[in-house]
């Protein structure tokens, strides 16, 4: 049975890893790519709208420039390789999709493009228009300008965030692995493929290994689980599947992460953010109140970390672990002044009428 039937998934995001698209010598695996393009064309013909998040620019550029370590020896090498390889990557996508009468569109985004609310909405509008026109957007991180400090770092999480922005119902992460196993299948022949995950808990996270098995990409199972958490919390199903299988978008093999009850678009954007400006720690009573749907009150806050302004995104921690995320009603200095203070005493400390909460429940999401 297919992972996503067109009727149940009007919009689908397909992420393709470098190890699938680029061979060991840095060349495009055209026969394989043509097969994927044919599958995408069949989906579009059935009425499904498909966008592709494609890795491969750095690997392709490194070959053309003769750079060591696949172009990842330094940030400067990676940026140069990305700038060179992106032209080749977009061209090959245009060719293989064009062979089926499909138009490809290139979108390059940075982390800030999807973390800033206004730019996120701009990207969302562009994706919506392209998909509505029957175009296949081909999206990649703009690695030619991204830095180590401000970047996605892998296209798994980028695919999940693109799915949010596009209003998609499903994400397929095509990689060189069958899915999530309960132990390393290379070391343990008895390792069991986990076919369905309802909740990404500590047990599921413990199954993740480190970096990319091919050494060509930047992701790994951990990044795929992080992508699954972003997608499923927004009501989007996600599958990890082996792209080396025949018809990988349809053969039904892989690990399905079931969509959770979706938050509002704004709260899903908040939950999926990868960067925050600061953190507020809270006591057990405040954590329980947040779980019940309440706002974060200063009386339950115990510590402030970071420098942030009113309106910045901050995390709420209990016992050192994030439990919620939201938009701060105070800057960090004023928030620190009223830690643990009840509302009726805050005005005298602040010198102005206090706001109703440190983070209002309308601008807060559990994570």
Summarize the amount of helix as a percent range.
Answer: 25-40%
Unreliable spans: 1-7, 210-218
Mean pLDDT: 90
Oligomer: single chain
Could you walk me through the main structural features you see in this protein, from its secondary elements to its overall organization?
- By secondary structure, this protein is an alpha/beta fold.
- The chain is 37% helix and 18% strand.
- The protein has 13 helices and 13 strands.
- An eight-stranded mixed β-sheet has the order 3-4-2-1-5-7-8-6, with helices on both faces.
- Strand 11 and strand 12 (321-327) form a beta hairpin.
- Helix 6 packs across helix 7 and helix 7 (155-166) runs parallel beside helix 9.
- It is elongated, with a radius of gyration of 22 Å.
- The model is unreliable at 1-7 and 210-218 (pLDDT under 50).
How would you summarize the topology of this molecule?
Elements (H helix, E strand, L loop, with lengths): L10 E6 L1 H4 L8 H16 L3 E6 L2 H9 L9 H24 L5 E6 L1 H5 L1 H16 L3 E6 L13 H12 L3 E6 L20 E2 L4 H5 L14 H13 L3 E6 L12 E3 L7 H8 L5 E5 L1 H8 L9 E5 L7 E6 L2 E7 L4 H6 L5 H8 L13 E3 L1
Parallel strand pairs: 1-2, 1-5, 2-4, 3-4, 5-7, 6-8, 9-11
Antiparallel strand pairs: 7-8, 9-10, 11-12, 12-13
Offer a few descriptive terms.
367 residues, alpha/beta, 5-stranded mixed sheet, 13 helices, 13 strands
